[in-house]
Backbone:
């Protein structure tokens, strides 16, 4: 829990002590694992591009690394992505090709060209000022520019790639919506909640 840096579940032990857990990453990883199993695939060795490096990203990155995924973290503030990558690499002693890699969001287009899974763990697509933005492109400027750039990037992603989002909403995020329109297999945040 200290490595992840956040908790979302507190248990009172028989001894009266409080113990904290973060179940977000486990929930996401289990949901993705089930989806891959239905396709006869395993999470180990899959290239996963994480879009974002905030709170939920920490839990998701640790859970995916524990299962042997090859992770690239892309974030607007590169230093946050680098901190998270270092924390995961240090915790699991990952080096070389197995190490988690961090990039700025200006490298998303390059990294998704050979991705097996893309997961939005950023605030893009959430209710509020970021609601209309896709996580695949920068949120600088207007929503239309962001969506146009995101769709151009979607056209370069391999067809086998699974597009996922940790957001749970009554409507699809812009990332999930545009991925569905282009025929990608998608998964929203519901399995993350179910498998916690």
Residues:
């Amino acid at each position: 829990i200290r490595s992840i840096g956040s908790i979302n579940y507190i248990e009172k032990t028989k001894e009266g002590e409080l113990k904290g857990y973060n179940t977000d990453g486990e929930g996401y990883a289990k949901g993705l694992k089930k989806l891959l199993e239905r396709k006869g695939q395993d999470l180990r060795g899959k290239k996963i591009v994480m879009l974002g490096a905030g709170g939920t990203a920490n839990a998701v990155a640790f859970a995916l690394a524990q299962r042997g995924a090859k992770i690239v973290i892309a974030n607007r503030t590169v230093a946050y992505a680098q901190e998270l990558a270092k924390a995961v690499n240090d915790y699991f002693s990952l080096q070389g090709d197995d190490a988690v890699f961090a990039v700025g969001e200006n490298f998303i287009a390059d990294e998704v060209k050979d991705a097996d899974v893309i997961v939005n763990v950023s605030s893009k697509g959430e209710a509020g000022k970021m609601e209309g933005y896709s996580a695949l492109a920068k949120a600088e400027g207007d929503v239309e520019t962001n969506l146009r750039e995101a769709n151009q990037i979607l056209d370069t992603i391999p067809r086998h790639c699974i597009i996922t989002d940790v957001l749970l909403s009554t409507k699809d995020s812009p990332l999930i919506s545009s991925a569905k329109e282009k025929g990608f297999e998608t998964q929203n945040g519901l399995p993350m909640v179910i498998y916690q």
